[in-house]
Amino acid sequence: MARKKNNYYFKIFVELLDYSCQAAKLLVEVMTDYHPEELEQRMEEMHEIEHSADLAKHQMMEQLAREFITPIEREDIMLMADFIDNVTDTIEDVLMRLYMFNITVIRKDALEVASIIAQCCEELKKALEEFGNFRKSKTLHKHIVEVNRLEEVGDKLYTEATRRLYVSEMNPVAVAAWTHVFHILEKACDACEDVSDVIESVMMKNS
Fold this sequence. Notes:
This protein is mainly α. It contains six helices and no strands.
């Protein structure tokens, strides 16, 4: 029974990150085959994912409030849940910005950053599947390194995409809109790296 309880939080982390993966996959899907007139419907789909993630997080917090002994520090459990939640929320924010700023055509470089976010989420999920065995895992560190590498790729894409926007785009409204969209995309990359940083921090504390 104790072992089952110890595994509970690690399983919930994977579940929460799976919602992030679903959100990232939906974002890439929307941006790849883009139909502005369908954005409201796709935002509802995205919000369902985000809402399900919130419910899972709340259930985890209720469980945490009832327990005296946890497999890792309570603060780290809460931090991990918050940071994973931030990944899903920020991905939803990207879709909302496409709607709010009436984006009619997706820029290729924006889709490239969205794809990086999806890859980050997949790597984080693999890392969290190993997290419960972090003292013995031979692959966990590899996934963390890959998330960091992908985030650096995302940063470079963001920098070049923003410069390209200001060099080539003559419409000031489009420049302003895409500046915001690129900023949120970059925030989503950073949010993924934040999760990997917490994983690494917990490993260091408990090794």
